[in-house]
Amino acid sequence: MDSQEPWNLENDTLKRSSKEIPHRPTPHIMSTSLLRKKSDLAIVSKVRCRLLRQVLANLQEVLLGTKLSLLFPAIPLAIIAEHYNFGRPWIFALSLLGLTPLAERVSFLTEQIASYTGPTVGGLLNATCGNATELIIALFALRQKKIDVLKYSLLGSILSNLLLVLGTSLFSGGLANMRKEQKYDRKQADVNALLLLLGLLCHMLPLMFRYSASSGALTADPILQLSRVSSIIMLIAYVAYLFFQLKTHRQLFEAQEEQGAVDDVNSQEEAVVGFWSGFAWLAGMTAFIALLSEYVVGTIESASKSWGMSVNFISIILLPIVGNAAEHAAAIIFALKNKLDITLGVVLGSATQISMFVIPLNVIVAWIMGIHMDLDFNLLETGSLALSIIITTFTLQDGTSHYMKGLVLLLCYIVMAACFFVLEKPLDQPSDLNLAA
Amino acid sequence: MASQEPWNLENGNLKGSSKEIRHVRTVHNMSSSSLRKKSDRSLVSKVPCRLLRQFLANLQEVILGTKLSVLFPAIPLAIIAECYNFGRPWIFGLSLLGLTPLAERVSFLTEQIAYYTGPTVGGLLNATCGNATELIIALFALYQKKVDVVKYSLLGSILSNLLLVLGTSLFCGGLANLKKEQKYERKQADVNSLLLLLGLLCHMLPLMFRYAVSPSTLTADPTLQLSRASSIVMLITYAAYIFFQLKTHRQLFEAQEEDGDDAGSEEEAVLGFWSAFAWLAGMTAIIALLSEYVVGTIEAASDSWGISVSFISIILLPIVGNAAEHAGAVIFAFKNKLDITLGIALGSATQIAMFVVPLNVIVAWIMGTRMDLDFNLLETGSLALAILITAFTLQDGTSHYMKGLILLLCYFVIGACFFVLRTPLNQPNAFNLGVQSSSGFSSA
């Protein structure tokens, strides 16, 4: 399983040469490729036994193939901390650190598997697994019946994508490319904006419903029914979006190709990990993510008390920063290279996926489990979501960019973070804002 | 009064050749023309008496000239049901069915009259009568002091135009024209979006006013005064919009012309001026009758069918009232003539928001009924999001099926919301803020 040619970090055009199927990488794939390192197979090739050599090469590729692998030791440390009861805030922090490289590796492995299955299934895989970390954290929170953590971590992920990641990318990209014109295709941004607005509608209707009714007791069931119906509709919209993106209007979403791609002929990448090997690694990594997510969700209150911040703040601000770290770095790097289509693809695609797929999926799973989860995310959070969607949509609607746009988005995020920082509501209080009480 | 050339359904360019007046077809005219049928004159021309022949030709043209005329029998059935007390839900259902072809015929007759009056007055006529059904239903509800039915049916009509009609049109048009690029003139959409946003402001201010003031302050009267002043402003805006559309910036609103079919089709009116006028008066009277039945039996139908009055007012009534326009908009989207589709959907929404709603407030003022522009949180919120989403959808000048699908799904979500909302109509809408609102469900 020796690789022919390691990933060439400088070459942004990745064309597969396996069989005749042209595998055009989606923005998500290309984003994480920037965090890869060249695997130096010199040491491994000295090992005599062929099987051992293959295993070690595999190991080296998967575990050491990223710059984030510095954080890998946090995983065993977190497990040790859990067993020896070091202190729950420590478990929380170590688990968070350990999740970061795992998220990146999962997308790497998804990409490897995608190279065997062809572009459409690969795109689907990416669309589903792109936010694996957030999904797993959410499912664990659901299982432990911490509905608020669930709601707010997903909401925070959308806010983080739309404002923080996009803001820093546009800001850095704008500063780096001050003399050049920065353009992108706005059609892609438009479709994502529309989906986010549909999601916003589905969140705002239960909220307004609750406020407009005369008594809180009468609205609980209708809101739940409405949320469940809306979730089904959102999933339908997401499936249609995948169909739109992968079948009928593919050309809108294809990653920008580099001019003068003389490097095309030279760099032929093949998958560096075999199909079943990749699958096995994926399963293993997902198991680790599940373990660390369980620690995170279980220790979040202790960390909150110990560090003096509200659980809302940790859920909305801290968790998503960790979960999105890899995509964040990649988005900035592509913006610096003035490839805004890819940046937007990463950011908006991730936000849309969480809004239209992960959240409704959680509502449906809660329905199956008999847990009472609706789409009513409370006034402050829903209002922040609404404003961030509107601000981002306005920012992206003219097809050009400069650093001021990025700075404004970034400052919006800082304001929202400050808002949730000063909000010190304990987690167990019923969250209906009855102003008459 | 035999027509020279029947309506040519395939020809998108319809230039009247009567005298020298170029009768440029407004989008509304063109929409309902797609539901017309060719009149077969052979049967009628065999009748010997000339007057009778004319009368029968007239009848045939008016009553049978549309594909919707299958629903005409519902009208006498509804009247019979009312007289013999069949059961109020039946009266409601039959009246609804009967209103659908009547609405379409009224627009046809308006178009006929417009031939004789020239383009400007014709445009004005269309602008006023385009939503005749909604206007008449609203006036009857006002007369019967069912202010909520008024508010919600008009709101539902705007929502239906912006999300349902536009959504299905863009969706079907996108699927049918998958390979082609679908463009439209966004300036028209922009003006309509601006007017809708002004209307939204006029609705949101009374609502926020009610929430913002402390409980001890009475807000009913100031809200009413604000609503009446806003209505006058909205009517002024609408008049300016008509002036903009028909006089100074006509070219933005002209229907898309198809190349190469100009010379072939010359239409004349198929009905005489006074004849059309008489038919129009008659049809309007029947619409009034059926509307009275609808408004009177709405609660009975709601109890009998188990759905809330809000749902019937916001979802069912507008679907019926807009049926003809809906079909026309979808057909034109199939032919990739999105300017016409947008003209129909947005024009109708603007007309209701800027003309019918304020007109009702003024009429209520004259009648001494207390109607304001405060349409309650959930409904106003839905309206705000619908306008926002539609404005975003239309602002880049192109279209694909995904846009239509999202608008349609938004409508389904809003429909589901009002379906599960089971607040009885008479309950005071007391808010948690401690404000005992008297203007929420005003049935003064």
UniProtKB/TrEMBL annotation, chain A:
One of its GO terms (molecular function) is calcium:proton antiporter activity. It is a multi-pass membrane protein. The keyword Endoplasmic reticulum does not apply. Residues 12-23 have a biased composition (Basic and acidic residues). Pfam families: Na_Ca_ex. GO terms for cellular component: calcium:proton antiporter complex; plant-type vacuole membrane. Keywords: Antiport, Calcium, Calcium transport, Ion transport, Membrane, Transmembrane, Transmembrane helix, Transport, Vacuole. GO terms for biological process: intracellular calcium ion homeostasis; intracellular manganese ion homeostasis; intracellular zinc ion homeostasis; lithium ion transport; phosphate ion homeostasis; regulation of stomatal movement. Its main location: membrane. The chain crosses the membrane at residues 152-171, 191-211, 223-244, 273-292, 313-336, 342-367, 379-397, 403-423. Residues 1-23 are annotated as: Disordered. Residues 90-246, 278-421 form the Sodium/calcium exchanger membrane region domain. The keyword Membrane applies. It is found in: Vacuole membrane. Belongs to the Ca(2+):cation antiporter (CaCA) (TC 2.A.19) family. Cation/proton exchanger (CAX) subfamily. NCBIfam families: caca2 (TIGR00846), cax (TIGR00378). Vacuolar cation/proton exchanger (CAX). Translocates Ca(2+) and other metal ions into vacuoles using the proton gradient formed by H(+)-ATPase and H(+)-pyrophosphatase. This is Vacuolar cation/proton exchanger. It comes from Tetracentron sinense. The lineage of its organism: Eukaryota, Viridiplantae, Streptophyta, Embryophyta, Tracheophyta.
From TrEMBL, chain B:
GO terms for molecular function: calcium:proton antiporter activity. The chain crosses the membrane at residues 152-173, 194-213, 271-291, 311-334, 341-367, 373-394, 401-421. It is found in: Vacuole membrane. Its main location: membrane. InterPro entries: CaH_exchang, CAX-like, NaCa_Exmemb, NCX_ion-bd_dom_sf. GO terms for cellular component: calcium:proton antiporter complex; plant-type vacuole membrane. Keywords: Antiport, Calcium, Calcium transport, Ion transport, Membrane, Transmembrane, Transmembrane helix, Transport, Vacuole. It is a multi-pass membrane protein. GO terms for biological process: intracellular calcium ion homeostasis; intracellular manganese ion homeostasis; intracellular zinc ion homeostasis; lithium ion transport; phosphate ion homeostasis; regulation of stomatal movement. Residues 90-246, 276-414 form the Sodium/calcium exchanger membrane region domain. Vacuolar cation/proton exchanger (CAX). Translocates Ca(2+) and other metal ions into vacuoles using the proton gradient formed by H(+)-ATPase and H(+)-pyrophosphatase. PANTHER family: VACUOLAR CALCIUM ION TRANSPORTER (PTHR31503), VACUOLAR CATION_PROTON EXCHANGER (PTHR31503:SF42). Belongs to the Ca(2+):cation antiporter (CaCA) (TC 2.A.19) family. Cation/proton exchanger (CAX) subfamily. This is Vacuolar cation/proton exchanger. It comes from Tetracentron sinense (Spur-leaf). The lineage of its organism: Eukaryota, Viridiplantae, Streptophyta, Embryophyta, Tracheophyta.
